[in-house]
Amino acid sequence: MASHSPFEIHLVEQKVKTLVNAQLKSILKRERLLVSGLKAAMQTRIVDHTLLKIRTCCGPPARTITPYSLRDLGYLLMFKDSPFYTILQHLTPVQECKVREATRDTIDCRITLKPDVADKLISEPNLRVMVFCASEPISHFSKVDIAFPHQVEIKVNLDEVKASLRGLKNRAGSTRPADITNLLRKRANYENTMTLTYALTHKEFYFVVSLVRQHSVEELVAKLQSGKTISKDQVIKESKLVESASSNANLIVIPVVSKAQDSDVQATGAIISLKCPVSTLRIDVPCRSTVCTHNQCFDASSFLQLQEQAPTWTCPVCNKTVSFEALEIDRYVDDILKSTPRSIDQVTVQPDGKWSLICLSPRPRRDSSGDDEDLVEIKDPPRVTAVKNEITNGPVSMRTPPTSSREQSTTSSVPPPSTGTKRSVSAVIDLISDDEEEIRRPSKKPATPAYLATPTYSGSGSGRAQPLGNGPGSFEPYPGIPPAKPNYIQRGYPRQ
Q1: Could you report the per-residue pLDDT of 58-74, keeping only the tens digit for each?
Q2: Using the 8-state DSSP alphabet, how is residue 425 labeled?
Q3: pTM here?
Q4: Do 163 and 175 touch, CB atoms closer than 8 A?
Q5: Are strands 327-330 and 229-230 parallel, antiparallel or unpaired?
Q6: How far is residue 300's CA from residue 90's CA, in Å, rounded to a whole number?
Q7: Quick one: which of 237, 254, 297 has its CA closest to 273?
């Protein structure tokens, strides 16, 4: 009797889960089963009935029926394809990382290289050993992205793997597999040890160690150059379609001249930059995706190097999702690059396919004799003119002008300054301030009263401390205020 493996039974379960409610009810009616209930209940009912019919027709299975085992999971764990490597075979079985919401866990793995694999790793440098990891859910009908736990550490033969295992934030599929080739002992039947430590996970993860063939960026660029290309006729056709669509849709067309809004200037072409938007250097191999609608190219080598580090696979010009299979070399832009010196950064492309170098000439100056009607003369008020003349005739420094200049600016109503050594406050007039403003002279600092001043004493031979007279250090009270009698307190002398 034929037996069915858990892998084949799991395929049946996955097929039933893809059915909608109408299909499930139709199967239940045909098998004369209960139709009512939730979708999950109907799926379980159909799976149980199918397994019962298999056991009745083919006999009992060779093993206990389970959804799937980790051995069968190796066939289900299929990762998305990448142009940078090709998975050849798995070197270890699939290992399960259970949920650890508040603790940490360590998974031990043994990597034993067969003689043929060890010899190939030594002789062929493009063969690498990498660790692939994915999180649930895992389905046989779709390929999964590479995803490691947020907190994870991998060690091979007690040496830590120095690799970024997180990828870009909120960008699924931007994580690369961990390359552990240089940490392995490349000897036949040698048991290499690998430990994976993780913590704080809310879903299960599965990892496997695989032998892959790595493809370099130079190899991929050569593959693009030998594959499909975008011809010149196709570029001209696309330019005409964009030109006709831009007249009916809200498309942005870059004008050729910066002053295109003038009535005597008409923009008839578009500007194509010869610099790569990724590396900001001149393009060597012009490349663009067939799913994009623009003619702007980017350098194939720079773009692939960026995707090798962080595989986001988005166009650097329009941010559309692209793939390696959709990249093609633009022969039209390639001819422009070969026909122009490396100092040229931009060219103008006409709708008929002709291109020319951009030479921005300065706008001619207008004749001042013919445009006098556009000039308006603004005269200063009399007061501002007088102030300007006074400032021009005065000294350059910002100090107070001399007495002669201040006397000329005074009005007749102001009395002449006194003949004393001090000038009166009214003789100084600020030309910038208004007439109504009152010039206030800062008040003098009040002198210290006699009773607050500290007297100076002299220790004479008379045995008493005497205040000094009008010599240095003596104090003088205000006129009309009798001097206060000092309070003599000194050690060893009686109080007066």
Answers
A1: 554 444 333 444 444 55
A2: G
A3: 0.56
A4: no
A5: parallel
A6: 31
A7: 297
